[in-house]
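[agent] plan:
  1. take the single chain provided in the ticket
  2. run structure prediction with default settings
  3. attach structure tokens to the ticket
  4. add a short note for the reviewer (M.T.)
[agent] executing step 1
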Amino acid sequence: MRGAYNTRQKRELQRFLMERSMQHFSVDEVVFEMRDRGEKVGRSTVYRYLEQLAEQGRVRKYPGVQGVTQYQHVEDAASCDGHFHMLCSRCGNLMHVECELMGVMADHLMVEHGFRLDPRETILVGLCEKCREDGGEAVAHVSDCDEGCHHSL
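[agent] step 2 finished; step 3 output follows
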């Protein structure tokens, strides 16, 4: 009986991951959403499963605000290679950023300093627009970033 229960849980967890592909979430978010769906799943079960998938390269882990790890399901290991990440230090939102200026910076670091920047592991920490509007500290945006600078969630 216990094996069937775990199989159903894994199927439901896999369904959650497929629905949230390339989105970021915490263990608690998974647990709460699963409970909202009527699925009983323990926090430790979700954690162990996500850690197992992270070891397999099917899930990426990112440090979050106040020590809360964020996970991201990736269909393909290379799907996160082409963009960098920004983390809001107030709300914990983890965003993808595809910006030509970041590529220029990565190229500069390689050519001038012999340092290869890994976009999958690079996280810029600051305040998102909403948190700044809600009274956060102002964070300057690079003035040269023109219309060619595309930020995506």
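[agent] step 4 note for reviewer: Residues 2-19 form the longest helix (18 residues).
[agent] ticket updated
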